[in-house]
């Protein structure tokens, strides 16, 4: 049975580990409450399909658990500050609860739960992406072996005490953020404090990568063409916040591979997409009060993302290059001189928008792309004719012999 660890989980939840979000003494911040709700939504998205299939109950305790989760989520959302949009969120939660009560399909419940988690994150500006580049899966492997393997297996294969991370179908239901979130003891109490209580944010993100890598350890890397066509999934925040299960099959596999090998995808990333991603991280640093980290990311975005492509862009659109140069310089001096925060945030956002325009300017024009297509067609025709000729000549020679 796939969920053999569920008995272990139920036992620990009901006896040893009270749900932290509900203890009366603690007053968690609204960020934490939103993250707790998001965490429970991700468990519903992933586990519900094991509890119900084709309208039939497969696992009664797991199903009861899902129903408890949805009530807990409603309480958590009720505790969040009231904003335009919260009532809507609660309404969607009501629809999700009904879908669970009516034993609707796993795919429907998953889609609804993930969509609600996205809206919750947008409404409460939940930080769902790391503010640093992700290391390789090996980085936290020693810690994984020491603290996690006893329940999740040396190669993530799972055991009677913890779920299987090599099960690609199950893992596709989690975003990297969902995995990270389960390792934050203020959000999820499934692990005791001896397991993840003293990990830093970076260590949790790195462990999420280690966990995500087990399902794709023996898979080939996706085609670089996919990386070119979907740059948003390769960079942050797309890489951290997207649930592969919500994507078409070929992208699903690609995203799972990319997030298990973040150190290898940097080479595939378009430099301007990298620049935009770094500026997004700079904004996060700046909002958190760390201007020097924001400054370093700005310089990195300029050097590694924009500068190598400036000559090409100069040929396509001189005015845009002038505008970009001015924006980079202004932002740099604003950060050094400590201009007002609204000015700096607006400047960061405007620069990202200009870089996105630059990215589209560097795409080959449509006519040129059509030209390539015609050239390829003519080349195949010529090749076909050549082959026919060669074959005809050979046949003639043969019949003469
Ligand atoms: C004592 C056993 C145990 C240990 C040790 C343990 N886990 Fe878990 N872990 C579990 C159980 C049980 C769940 C299932 C929670 C659920 O689905 O509600 C879980 C869930 C998770 C999840 C959520 C994804 C999923 O498949 O449900 C992640 C990620 C995770 N563990 C990572 C880790 C990491 C990383 C470590 C080591 C730092 C670790 N675990 C150590 C028992 C354990």
UniProtKB/TrEMBL annotation:
Single annotated GO MF: electron transfer activity
Ranges annotated as spanning the membrane: 371-393
Classification via Gene3D superfamilies: Cytochrome c-like domain
Domain spans labelled Cytochrome c: 143-168
Keywords: Heme, Iron, Membrane, Metal-binding, Transmembrane, Transmembrane helix
This protein's record includes keyword Membrane: yes
Pfam families, per database record: Cytochrom_C
Source species, domain of life: Bacteria
Annotated InterPro entries: Cyt_c-like_dom, Cyt_c-like_dom_sf
Designated name of the protein: Cytochrome c
Organism: Microbulbifer okhotskensis
């Amino acid at each position: 049975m796939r969920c053999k660890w569920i008995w272990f989980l139920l036992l620990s939840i009901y006896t040893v580990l009270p749900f932290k979000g509900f203890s009366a003494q603690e007053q968690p911040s609204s960020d934490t409450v939103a993250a707790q709700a998001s965490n429970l939504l991700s468990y519903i998205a992933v586990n519900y399909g094991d509890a119900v299939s084709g309208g039939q109950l497969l696992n009664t305790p797991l199903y009861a658990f899902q129903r408890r989760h949805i009530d807990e989520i409603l309480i958590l959302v009720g505790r969040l500050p009231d904003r335009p949009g919260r009532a809507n969120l609660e309404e969607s939660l009501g629809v999700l609860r009904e879908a669970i009560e009516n034993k609707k399909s796993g795919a429907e419940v998953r889609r609804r739960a993930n969509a609600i988690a996205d809206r919750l994150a947008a409404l409460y500006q939940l930080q769902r992406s790391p503010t640093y580049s992700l290391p390789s899966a090996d980085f936290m492997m020693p810690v994984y072996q020491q603290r996690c393997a006893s329940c999740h297996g040396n190669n993530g294969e799972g055991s009677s005490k913890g779920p299987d991370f090599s099960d690609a179908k199950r893992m596709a239901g989690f975003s990297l953020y969902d995995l990270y979130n389960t390792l934050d003891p203020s959000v999820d109490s499934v692990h005791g404090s001896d397991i993840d209580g003293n990990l830093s944010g970076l260590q949790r993100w790195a462990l999420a990568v280690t966990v995500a890598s087990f399902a794709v350890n023996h898979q080939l890397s996706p085609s670089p063409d996919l990386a070119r066509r979907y740059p948003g999934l390769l960079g942050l925040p797309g890489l951290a916040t997207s649930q592969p299960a919500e994507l078409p099959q070929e992208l699903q596999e690609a995203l799972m591979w990319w997030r298990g090998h973040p150190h290898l995808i940097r080479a595939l990333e378009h430099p301007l997409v990298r620049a935009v991603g770094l500026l997004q991280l700079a904004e996060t640093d700046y909002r958190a009060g760390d201007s020097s980290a924001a400054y370093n990311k700005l310089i990195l975005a300029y050097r590694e993302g924009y500068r190598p492509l400036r000559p090409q862009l100069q040929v396509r659109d001189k005015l845009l290059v002038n505008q970009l140069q001015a924006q980079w310089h202004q932002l740099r001096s604003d950060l050094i001189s400590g201009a007002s925060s609204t000015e700096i945030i607006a400047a960061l956002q405007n620069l990202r928008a200009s870089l996105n325009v630059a990215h589209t300017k560097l795409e080959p024009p449509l006519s040129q792309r059509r030209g390539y297509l015609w050239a390829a067609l003519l080349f195949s025709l010529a090749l076909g004719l050549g082959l026919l000729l060669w074959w005809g000549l050979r046949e003639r020679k043969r019949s003469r012999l």
